[in-house]
Amino acid sequence: MDNERGHRRRAGGERRVEVLRVAASVLAERGYDRTRFSDVASAAGVAVSTLQFYFGSRDDMLVAALHHSTEEEVRVMERCAAQEDGPWERLLRLLERGLASQPEQTWRMLLEFWYAAVRDPELRAHSADLQRRYRRPFVEAVHEGVRTGRFTTDQDPEDLVTVVLALLDGLVVPRLCAHDYVREAQVRVIAVDAVAGLLGVDRSTT
């Protein structure tokens, strides 16, 4: 079975990657349970038989699409972290990315990923590895800030990052539901101030 999956991952090359992006887009719109081979085939302009050749089953296609999309999101966060040198500046860049009004499709895809990972063992294992990588730039920035004296906290950096990411993740649902109490600019100020407070950062000098 593993050899068969490896063969399918190699099949199609760049065209398969493009189909994965389309599949993620369809999944974000229709939801994990309602996305069919025919939906993705129609959106991608390929035959259902091509999708079966690339992926095997519908579930394998959706798992592959979620793998691909979430990997891309992690790489975006890693690039954000690499753009800044100082620990607070790096952390602020990461926060800005998480707080930004991203395309709704990205939020929908992440929500579908979490939903599917609760029930799918392969996705659940992937989600654990993905979360470790997603957290790493945050954790490294906090460690560096404490080590260099930029941050003052007695809390474990891992625990601090868990709280910070819970704050960011918790904003996804009300944003997707377009709840009118979510005021983006005000939420951003409060979130950044809250993280600065957790780390003992003097905002007047940053």
The CATH homologous superfamily name equals Tetracycline Repressor, domain 2
In the predicted model, the low-confidence regions spanning at least 5 consecutive residues are: 1-8
Count of individual domains: 1
What distance separates the N and C termini? 54 Å
Quaternary structure of the protein: single chain
Specify the CATH architecture: Orthogonal Bundle
* Arithmetic mean of pLDDT: 87
* Class by alpha and beta content: mainly alpha
What CATH calls the topology is Tetracycline Repressor, domain 2
Shape: elongated
Q: How large is the count of helical segments?
A: 11
Order of helices and strands: HHHHHHHHHHH
Strand content: under 5%
Number of DSSP strand runs: 0
Largest sheet: none
Walk me through the topology.
Layout: H1 2-10, H2 13-30, H3 37-44, H4 48-55, H5 58-82, H6 87-99, H7 104-119, H8 121-147, H9 157-170, H10 172-176, H11 184-199
Describe the structure in your own words:
This protein has 206 residues and is an all-alpha fold. It has one domain: Tetracycline Repressor, domain 2 (Orthogonal Bundle), CATH 1.10.357. The protein contains eleven helices and no strands. It has helices at 2-10, 13-30, 37-44, 48-55, 58-82, 87-99, 104-119, 121-147, 157-170, 172-176, 184-199.
